């Protein structure tokens, strides 16, 4: 004997896709936690390379931004250890394109780090020797 049952209410059945409301709330909480930590680091940036944070480190015009000498995965470490320079927007756009300037900034950053943080191991923290 075959029984045909028509199911009209599927609200109590298995739903393989999580509800949108729950997923967006979880993601936004994770992003906010990370953003607050990063914002705190960015707001407390300082420089061990130069004392004059008002002029561009490269060309000397008025500073518009702060640039972390070691970017990418080392960006937060640059902020933590003060490897930040004041820079104008024009020079900031030029740095990734000019490899020699970028290498020079890395060398200056490593020398300043070794001068201030004598007991810290630069290569262990930043993963490379630039000198």
Quaternary structure: single chain
Strand portion, in percent?
5-15%
Question: How much helicity do the residues have?
Answer: 40-55%
In N-to-C order, the SSE pattern is HEHEHHH
**Distance linking N and C termini:** 85 Å
What is the C-alpha radius of gyration, as a whole number of Å?
A: 25 Å
The overall pLDDT, averaged over residues, is 80
Strand order of the largest sheet: 1-2
* Biggest pleated-sheet summary: 2 strands, antiparallel
- Tally the helices: what do you get? 5
What structural class is derived from the secondary structure elements?
mainly alpha
Number of DSSP strand runs: 2
Structural commentary:
It contains 5 helices and 2 strands; from the N terminus they run H-E-H-E-H-H-H. By secondary structure, it is mainly α. It has a domain of 79 residues. Strands 1-2 form a two-stranded antiparallel sheet. The longest helix has 24 residues. The mean pLDDT is 80.
Keywords:
5 helices; mainly alpha; 131 residues; 6% strand; two-stranded antiparallel sheet; elongated
What's a quick, concise take on this entry?
Helix content is 46%, strand content 6%. The protein has 131 residues and is mainly alpha-helical.
């Amino acid at each position: 004997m075959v029984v045909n049952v028509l199911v009209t209410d599927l609200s109590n059945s298995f739903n393989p896709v999580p509800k949108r409301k729950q997923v967006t709330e979880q993601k936004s909480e994770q992003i906010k936690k990370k953003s607050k930590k990063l914002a705190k680091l960015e707001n407390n940036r300082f420089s061990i390379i130069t004392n004059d944070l008002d002029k561009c480190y490269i060309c000397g015009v008025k500073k518009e931004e702060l640039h972390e000498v070691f970017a990418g995965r080392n960006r937060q470490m640059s902020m933590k250890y003060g490897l930040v320079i004041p820079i104008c927007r024009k020079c900031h756009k030029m740095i990734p394109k000019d490899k020699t300037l970028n290498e020079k900034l890395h060398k200056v950053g490593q020398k300043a780090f070794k001068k201030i943080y004598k007991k810290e191991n630069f290569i262990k923290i930043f993963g490379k020797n630039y000198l």
